[in-house]
Amino acid sequence: MKRMTNIFLSGLMPLSIKNMRKFLWLVCGFILFSSVNSVGAQEDKEEVERVNTHVVFVDTLVKDQRTGVSVTDLTQDNFEVFDNGKRREISYFSKEGDGRRRALALFIMLAPLDDGARKNFQRPEVVISLASALQKLPPQDEVGLMVLGRAGDAKILTELTRDRAKVVTALTNLQKFSERKMSESINAPKVLQDTALSTASQRPNSQVTVVMLTDSVFLMNHMQRDEVAANLLRANVTFNALITGTDFMFKLFTPILKPVENDLGVSWYDSPQYLAKQTGGDYARPRKKKEYGAALERLIGSLTVRYSIGFTLGEEEADDGQMHRLEVKVRARDSQGQERKVEVITRNGYYMPKK
């Protein structure tokens, strides 16, 4: 080693100052080039080791069985999630007031059967309650508003916005729209579905929710109803409904109409409830007009007290085209040490993401 060092040094000694500078520039360039290659190799290695993950979110509403009041003081340890009976490890958890909570993308749809029902949604107390409920939403939440005329056209009155005043103004101007004559009939369930899926596509990181205000009759055939439910589940859209009034004719003849519904493959009365139950949403059916406003305020208020629970899919888990059944179990005790009796509302299932 000493001999080699001497040779190397003896080789440097005869260099002129000019040649020495060239030599040093050459050495520096070699070192820089080696460093860049080393960093690039590390980056390539990191890129190879990067793993794509997908989190399945399960938004869950928990109510006290006796009072119906939302339970908001639970922690992650109180929850268990099962996928087709298999327990999943919870990798994401947030709740009201938590900085990790996903923003809400809420579309409110007014879907009355006729002008009489439409006017009920325009009652001052309903508009005031809706405006009040929107003002209570966290500032990062977005709200859109549309009118869906089942015997006519559909119109978006307000695109998704964080400006509450803009939504309230649209509500105030709602009567002007309702006085317009509808041009042609539409497929209301399809418009509902397409609007929800478009919102989910535009806001992939938000908790997408639809609240539909409708009356007691909302006709859908079973095939279309099941298709809408499956598509909402795929996009993780939660459907909620405020069902106003009671059609006494349908109520009176329900025992007769129910078998006919099954034979014809149609549903006159309970499609909104069905969609809500499938997607983990909630619904209210106030009987009196004076109760509409308070019921709507409670329904929208319940959207912010949901728990957002998520589990991570393995890299090898791919779309199998089948719906996976979801079940969320809650175990908690009250201040007396007794097991709390709660109602858990969550979506019935999910579909694996396409690769």
Search tags:
355 residues; alpha/beta; Rossmann fold; 2 domains; six-stranded mixed β-sheet; 16 strands
Structure description:
This protein is 39% helix and 26% strand. By secondary structure, it is α/β, with parallel strands linked by helices. It has 2 domains: 54-95 and 307-351, no CATH class; 104-305, von Willebrand factor, type A domain (Rossmann fold, 3-Layer(aba) Sandwich). A hairpin with a 2-residue loop joins strand 2 and strand 3. Residues 1-18 and 43-50 have low confidence and may be disordered.
Low-confidence stretches: 1-18, 43-50
Topology-level CATH name of the largest domain: Rossmann fold
Distance N to C terminus: 58 Å
Supply Rg. Answer: 30 Å
Say what oligomer this is. single chain
CATH homologous superfamily placement of the largest domain: von Willebrand factor, type A domain
Strand order of the largest sheet: 7-6-5-8-10-12
Shape: globular
Largest sheet: 6 strands, mixed
Q: Let me know the number of strands.
A: 16
Helix content: 25-40%
Question: By helix and strand content, what is the structural category?
Answer: alpha/beta
Number of domains: 2
Order of helices and strands: HHEEEEEHHEEHHHEEHEHHEHEHEEEE
> Would you tell me the overall average pLDDT?
79
CATH architecture of the largest domain: 3-Layer(aba) Sandwich
The portion of residues forming beta strands comes to: 25-35%
